[in-house]
Amino acid sequence: MRALLTLARGIDALNERVGRAVYWLVLIVALVSAGNAASRYGLGASSNAWLELQWYLFSAIFLLAAGYTLRHNGHVRIDVIYGRLPPRSRAMIDLFGTVLFLLPMAGLIMWLSWTGFAESYAIGEVSPDAGGLPRWPVRLLIPLGFGLLALQGVSELIKRIAFLAGQGPLAEEAAEEHV
Asked: Boundaries of each Tripartite ATP-independent periplasmic transporters DctQ component domain copy (predicted)?
């Protein structure tokens, strides 16, 4: 179990670093958006490449931060019942949800989206709009983002199993103990 918990900590650290890097993408997309608007309305000049860059950055923020969001328990869930359950029951729900829904869904999307990325890269797909950007980088974000989400799902699964086996508290309970 120690080796698995070490793996979980490594996955947590990876998604933490990626999530922190994504914070900077928010600033970059705000600057690109402001610059594009200033160029369009102030100078009467616009570029499809800048508009597409905004789209790519928004996609990167959403997709690359999914694992980080799961790590910090930030995904939407129905807390009406879940929040009132004891920690062991919540861990069981998380365990089954991860095994039955999260990991199969993330794996399927990674698998299906990889072909689209590979084809886009192979043919050098470019946006059909004048001055548009290559499409393969944004297509790569899909399997990469869902890969990070699946990895974090594995980490959460390991931590739930360890908790249920009495090998340590969940992050939420550990945080409450230190308050």
From this structure: 31-161
Q: Which residues contact 134 (CB under 8 A, 6 or more apart)?
A: 124, 125, 126, 127
DSSP state letters, 79-134: HHHHTTS-HHHHHHHHHHHIIIIIHHHHHHHHHHHHHHHHHHHHHT-B-SSTTPPB
For 59-76, how does the pLDDT look when each residue is reduced to its tens digit (9 = 90+)?
Answer: 999 999 999 999 998 877
Q: What is the pLDDT of residues 128-168, one digit of tens each?
A: 888 789 999 999 999 999 999 999 999 999 999 999 998 87
Domain boundaries, the chain: 2-177
φ and ψ at residue 178, rounded to 5 degrees? -90, 0
Residues 56/138, Cβ–Cβ less than 8 Å = yes
Eight-class DSSP state of 19? H
Q: How many residues does the chain have?
A: 179
* pTM attached to this predicted model: 0.86
Cα distances (angstroms) measured from residue 82 to each of 60, 135, 167: 30, 41, 22
- Give residue 179's pLDDT band: very low, low, confident or very high (50, 70, 90): very low
